[in-house]
Amino acid sequence: MKIGFIGLGNMGAPMAANLAAAGHAVTGFDLAAPMPEGVSAAGSASDAAKGQDVVITMLPNGAILRAVAAEVLPAMQAGSVLLDCSTVDVESARAVAEQAQAAGVLAADGPVSGGIGGAAAGTLTFMVGGSDEAFAKIEPLLEVMGQKAVHCGASGAGQAAKICNNMILGITMIGTCEAFALADKLGLDRQKMFDVVSTSSGYSWSMNAYCPAPGVGPQSPADNGYKPGFAAELMLKDLLLSQQAAEAADADTPMGAAAAALYHAFVEEEGGKGMDFSAMLPRFEKRSRG
Protein backbone atom coordinates (compact mmCIF):
# COMPACT_ATOMS: atom_id res chain seq x y z
CA MET A 1 0.00 0.00 0.00
CA LYS A 2 0.88 3.67 -0.26
CA ILE A 3 1.05 5.04 3.27
CA GLY A 4 1.48 8.50 4.76
CA PHE A 5 2.82 8.50 8.32
CA ILE A 6 2.61 11.69 10.39
CA GLY A 7 4.34 11.74 13.77
CA LEU A 8 7.66 9.87 13.78
CA GLY A 9 8.69 10.02 17.42
CA ASN A 10 9.61 7.14 19.72
CA MET A 11 6.53 5.13 18.76
CA GLY A 12 5.80 6.30 15.22
CA ALA A 13 9.32 5.87 13.84
CA PRO A 14 9.64 2.10 14.43
CA MET A 15 6.06 1.52 13.32
CA ALA A 16 6.74 3.33 10.03
CA ALA A 17 10.05 1.51 9.59
CA ASN A 18 8.33 -1.87 10.01
CA LEU A 19 5.76 -0.95 7.35
CA ALA A 20 8.54 0.09 4.95
CA ALA A 21 10.49 -3.10 5.67
CA ALA A 22 7.37 -5.10 4.80
CA GLY A 23 7.36 -3.56 1.32
CA HIS A 24 4.87 -0.73 1.69
CA ALA A 25 5.67 2.68 0.19
CA VAL A 26 5.81 4.97 3.24
CA THR A 27 6.04 8.76 3.11
CA GLY A 28 6.59 10.46 6.45
CA PHE A 29 6.32 13.87 8.02
CA ASP A 30 7.41 15.13 11.43
CA LEU A 31 8.21 18.61 12.68
CA ALA A 32 11.51 17.53 14.26
CA ALA A 33 12.22 13.79 14.16
CA PRO A 34 14.41 12.26 11.43
CA MET A 35 13.00 9.88 8.85
CA PRO A 36 13.28 6.19 9.73
CA GLU A 37 15.06 3.84 7.35
CA GLY A 38 13.02 3.20 4.21
CA VAL A 39 10.66 6.15 4.74
CA SER A 40 10.58 9.04 2.25
CA ALA A 41 10.30 12.57 3.61
CA ALA A 42 7.44 14.94 2.78
CA GLY A 43 7.58 18.70 3.22
CA SER A 44 4.28 18.94 5.08
CA ALA A 45 1.55 16.80 6.59
CA SER A 46 -0.72 17.47 3.64
CA ASP A 47 2.02 16.45 1.20
CA ALA A 48 2.47 13.19 3.15
CA ALA A 49 -1.26 12.52 2.81
CA LYS A 50 -1.70 13.15 -0.93
CA GLY A 51 -2.55 10.09 -3.00
CA GLN A 52 -2.12 7.62 -0.14
CA ASP A 53 -4.25 4.56 0.55
CA VAL A 54 -3.87 5.03 4.30
CA VAL A 55 -2.65 7.96 6.39
CA ILE A 56 -1.46 7.04 9.89
CA THR A 57 -1.01 9.58 12.67
CA MET A 58 0.83 9.15 15.98
CA LEU A 59 0.45 12.44 17.85
CA PRO A 60 0.69 13.81 21.41
CA ASN A 61 -2.91 14.83 22.12
CA GLY A 62 -6.40 15.43 20.80
CA ALA A 63 -5.90 19.10 19.99
CA ILE A 64 -2.94 18.32 17.73
CA LEU A 65 -4.87 15.44 16.15
CA ARG A 66 -7.75 17.76 15.29
CA ALA A 67 -5.35 20.30 13.76
CA VAL A 68 -3.53 17.67 11.69
CA ALA A 69 -6.82 16.12 10.54
CA ALA A 70 -8.04 19.53 9.38
CA GLU A 71 -4.85 19.83 7.32
CA VAL A 72 -4.67 16.36 5.81
CA LEU A 73 -8.30 15.43 5.14
CA PRO A 74 -8.68 17.88 2.20
CA ALA A 75 -5.57 16.30 0.62
CA MET A 76 -6.72 12.70 1.01
CA GLN A 77 -8.40 10.78 -1.78
CA ALA A 78 -11.95 9.48 -1.44
CA GLY A 79 -12.14 5.99 0.04
CA SER A 80 -8.75 6.19 1.73
CA VAL A 81 -8.39 5.66 5.49
CA LEU A 82 -7.20 8.00 8.22
CA LEU A 83 -5.88 5.77 11.00
CA ASP A 84 -5.01 7.58 14.22
CA CYS A 85 -2.81 5.54 16.55
CA SER A 86 -2.42 8.29 19.16
CA THR A 87 -3.97 8.03 22.60
CA VAL A 88 -6.44 10.92 22.78
CA ASP A 89 -9.83 11.75 24.27
CA VAL A 90 -12.86 9.94 22.88
CA GLU A 91 -14.50 13.21 21.82
CA SER A 92 -11.55 14.13 19.57
CA ALA A 93 -11.56 10.69 17.96
CA ARG A 94 -15.27 10.96 17.18
CA ALA A 95 -14.97 14.54 15.93
CA VAL A 96 -12.19 13.58 13.51
CA ALA A 97 -14.24 10.61 12.29
CA GLU A 98 -17.14 12.94 11.52
CA GLN A 99 -14.83 15.28 9.62
CA ALA A 100 -13.42 12.35 7.67
CA GLN A 101 -16.88 11.10 6.74
CA ALA A 102 -17.79 14.55 5.44
CA ALA A 103 -14.62 14.47 3.27
CA GLY A 104 -15.42 11.02 1.86
CA VAL A 105 -12.60 9.41 3.88
CA LEU A 106 -12.85 6.40 6.19
CA ALA A 107 -11.57 6.87 9.74
CA ALA A 108 -10.33 4.56 12.47
CA ASP A 109 -8.98 5.24 15.94
CA GLY A 110 -6.36 2.62 16.75
CA PRO A 111 -4.43 3.38 19.94
CA VAL A 112 -1.78 0.86 20.89
CA SER A 113 -0.45 -1.05 23.86
CA GLY A 114 3.06 -2.44 24.04
CA GLY A 115 5.31 0.59 24.35
CA ILE A 116 8.49 1.42 22.47
CA GLY A 117 9.72 -2.17 22.62
CA GLY A 118 6.50 -3.45 21.07
CA ALA A 119 6.63 -0.80 18.36
CA ALA A 120 10.18 -1.83 17.41
CA ALA A 121 9.44 -5.57 17.52
CA GLY A 122 6.11 -5.28 15.70
CA THR A 123 4.24 -6.83 18.64
CA LEU A 124 1.82 -4.03 19.52
CA THR A 125 -1.83 -4.60 20.40
CA PHE A 126 -4.24 -2.33 18.54
CA MET A 127 -7.64 -1.35 19.93
CA VAL A 128 -9.63 -0.12 16.94
CA GLY A 129 -12.78 1.93 16.57
CA GLY A 130 -14.40 2.54 13.21
CA SER A 131 -16.49 0.89 10.51
CA ASP A 132 -16.05 -2.69 9.32
CA GLU A 133 -14.91 -1.30 5.96
CA ALA A 134 -12.19 0.82 7.53
CA PHE A 135 -10.98 -2.04 9.73
CA ALA A 136 -10.78 -4.43 6.76
CA LYS A 137 -8.61 -1.96 4.83
CA ILE A 138 -6.14 -1.35 7.64
CA GLU A 139 -5.99 -4.87 9.08
CA PRO A 140 -3.05 -5.99 6.87
CA LEU A 141 -1.04 -3.02 8.17
CA LEU A 142 -1.96 -3.77 11.77
CA GLU A 143 -0.66 -7.30 11.27
CA VAL A 144 2.73 -5.85 10.27
CA MET A 145 2.95 -3.42 13.18
CA GLY A 146 1.43 -5.63 15.86
CA GLN A 147 0.59 -9.09 17.08
CA LYS A 148 -3.08 -8.47 17.82
CA ALA A 149 -5.81 -6.10 16.63
CA VAL A 150 -9.26 -6.00 18.22
CA HIS A 151 -12.09 -4.21 16.44
CA CYS A 152 -13.79 -2.71 19.48
CA GLY A 153 -16.74 -1.02 17.78
CA ALA A 154 -17.67 2.27 16.18
CA SER A 155 -15.51 5.41 16.13
CA GLY A 156 -14.15 6.22 19.57
CA ALA A 157 -14.37 2.65 20.83
CA GLY A 158 -10.65 2.08 20.39
CA GLN A 159 -9.85 5.10 22.54
CA ALA A 160 -12.42 3.98 25.12
CA ALA A 161 -10.75 0.56 25.36
CA LYS A 162 -7.27 2.08 25.70
CA ILE A 163 -8.37 4.54 28.39
CA CYS A 164 -10.09 1.80 30.43
CA ASN A 165 -7.11 -0.55 30.06
CA ASN A 166 -4.62 2.06 31.20
CA MET A 167 -6.76 3.13 34.12
CA ILE A 168 -6.55 -0.48 35.33
CA LEU A 169 -2.79 -0.47 34.70
CA GLY A 170 -2.22 2.72 36.69
CA ILE A 171 -4.30 1.46 39.60
CA THR A 172 -2.66 -1.97 39.71
CA MET A 173 0.86 -0.54 39.49
CA ILE A 174 0.19 1.71 42.45
CA GLY A 175 -1.20 -1.24 44.40
CA THR A 176 1.81 -3.37 43.51
CA CYS A 177 4.25 -0.66 44.61
CA GLU A 178 2.35 -0.07 47.84
CA ALA A 179 2.47 -3.80 48.59
CA PHE A 180 6.24 -4.04 48.05
CA ALA A 181 6.82 -1.00 50.26
CA LEU A 182 4.64 -2.54 52.98
CA ALA A 183 6.42 -5.89 52.61
CA ASP A 184 9.76 -4.11 53.12
CA LYS A 185 8.57 -2.56 56.38
CA LEU A 186 7.20 -5.90 57.54
CA GLY A 187 10.59 -7.51 56.92
CA LEU A 188 9.39 -9.71 54.04
CA ASP A 189 12.00 -10.53 51.39
CA ARG A 190 11.03 -9.08 48.00
CA GLN A 191 11.78 -12.27 46.10
CA LYS A 192 9.59 -14.26 48.50
CA MET A 193 6.88 -11.65 48.09
CA PHE A 194 7.09 -12.05 44.31
CA ASP A 195 7.12 -15.86 44.52
CA VAL A 196 3.89 -15.83 46.50
CA VAL A 197 1.96 -13.04 44.78
CA SER A 198 2.92 -13.96 41.21
CA THR A 199 1.22 -17.34 41.63
CA SER A 200 -1.61 -16.24 43.92
CA SER A 201 -4.69 -14.05 43.77
CA GLY A 202 -2.57 -10.87 43.70
CA TYR A 203 -1.30 -11.85 40.23
CA SER A 204 -1.31 -8.96 37.75
CA TRP A 205 0.63 -7.76 34.71
CA SER A 206 2.20 -5.09 36.89
CA MET A 207 3.59 -7.79 39.19
CA ASN A 208 4.34 -10.65 36.83
CA ALA A 209 5.49 -8.98 33.61
CA TYR A 210 6.64 -5.51 34.73
CA CYS A 211 7.67 -5.94 38.34
CA PRO A 212 8.60 -2.58 39.91
CA ALA A 213 11.17 -4.16 42.27
CA PRO A 214 14.73 -4.31 40.85
CA GLY A 215 16.17 -7.80 40.55
CA VAL A 216 12.81 -9.50 40.98
CA GLY A 217 10.87 -11.19 38.19
CA PRO A 218 11.61 -10.70 34.48
CA GLN A 219 13.69 -7.77 33.23
CA SER A 220 11.84 -4.47 33.53
CA PRO A 221 12.69 -0.75 33.72
CA ALA A 222 13.26 -1.23 37.46
CA ASP A 223 16.42 -3.11 36.49
CA ASN A 224 17.61 -0.12 34.44
CA GLY A 225 17.36 2.67 36.99
CA TYR A 226 13.68 3.18 36.14
CA LYS A 227 14.51 4.63 32.73
CA PRO A 228 11.13 4.73 31.06
CA GLY A 229 9.61 1.97 29.04
CA PHE A 230 6.35 3.80 29.75
CA ALA A 231 7.01 7.19 31.30
CA ALA A 232 5.16 8.36 34.40
CA GLU A 233 3.98 11.49 32.59
CA LEU A 234 2.36 9.32 29.90
CA MET A 235 0.56 7.31 32.56
CA LEU A 236 -0.60 10.60 34.05
CA LYS A 237 -1.89 11.69 30.64
CA ASP A 238 -3.88 8.46 30.25
CA LEU A 239 -5.29 8.62 33.77
CA LEU A 240 -6.40 12.22 33.19
CA LEU A 241 -8.08 11.07 29.96
CA SER A 242 -9.86 8.37 31.96
CA GLN A 243 -11.19 10.96 34.37
CA GLN A 244 -12.24 13.27 31.53
CA ALA A 245 -14.14 10.35 30.00
CA ALA A 246 -15.63 9.37 33.37
CA GLU A 247 -16.91 12.91 33.91
CA ALA A 248 -18.44 13.02 30.43
CA ALA A 249 -20.11 9.62 30.94
CA ASP A 250 -21.11 10.30 34.59
CA ALA A 251 -19.16 7.22 35.72
CA ASP A 252 -17.97 6.80 39.31
CA THR A 253 -14.24 5.93 39.20
CA PRO A 254 -12.79 6.69 42.65
CA MET A 255 -9.74 4.44 42.22
CA GLY A 256 -9.00 5.99 38.83
CA ALA A 257 -9.29 9.46 40.36
CA ALA A 258 -6.97 8.50 43.22
CA ALA A 259 -4.41 7.04 40.80
CA ALA A 260 -4.54 10.21 38.69
CA ALA A 261 -3.95 12.35 41.77
CA LEU A 262 -1.00 10.22 42.92
CA TYR A 263 0.66 10.27 39.49
CA HIS A 264 0.05 14.02 39.22
CA ALA A 265 1.88 14.59 42.50
CA PHE A 266 4.65 12.18 41.46
CA VAL A 267 5.23 13.83 38.07
CA GLU A 268 4.67 17.48 38.93
CA GLU A 269 5.94 17.74 42.51
CA GLU A 270 8.13 14.74 43.34
CA GLY A 271 10.61 14.42 40.48
CA GLY A 272 8.87 11.59 38.69
CA LYS A 273 8.89 13.22 35.26
CA GLY A 274 11.22 11.32 32.94
CA MET A 275 11.07 8.17 35.05
CA ASP A 276 9.18 4.95 34.37
CA PHE A 277 5.69 4.75 35.83
CA SER A 278 6.85 1.84 38.00
CA ALA A 279 9.18 4.25 39.85
CA MET A 280 6.25 4.68 42.22
CA LEU A 281 7.99 1.97 44.26
CA PRO A 282 10.98 4.09 45.39
CA ARG A 283 8.47 6.90 46.01
CA PHE A 284 6.53 4.73 48.48
CA GLU A 285 9.74 3.35 50.01
CA LYS A 286 10.67 6.87 51.16
CA ARG A 287 7.31 7.72 52.64
CA SER A 288 5.75 7.08 56.03
CA ARG A 289 2.07 6.76 56.76
CA GLY A 290 1.79 10.37 57.91
Give the key terms.
single chain; 290 residues; alpha/beta; 9-stranded mixed β-sheet; 12 helices; 49% helix; elongated
Can you describe what's shown?
Helices cover 49% and strands 14% of the residues. By secondary structure, it is an alpha/beta fold. Strands 1, 2, 3, 4, 5, 6, 7, 8 and 9 form a nine-stranded mixed β-sheet that branches. Helix 3 packs parallel to helix 4 (90-102) and helix 7 (157-185) crosses helix 11. The longest helix has 29 residues, at 157-185. The model has no long low-confidence stretch (mean pLDDT 97).
Q: Which percent range fits the helix content?
A: 40-55%
Oligomer description: single chain
Distance between the termini: 59 Å
Q: List the helices and strands in order.
A: EHEEHEHEHEEHEHEHHHHHH
**Mind describing the biggest β-sheet?**
9 strands, mixed
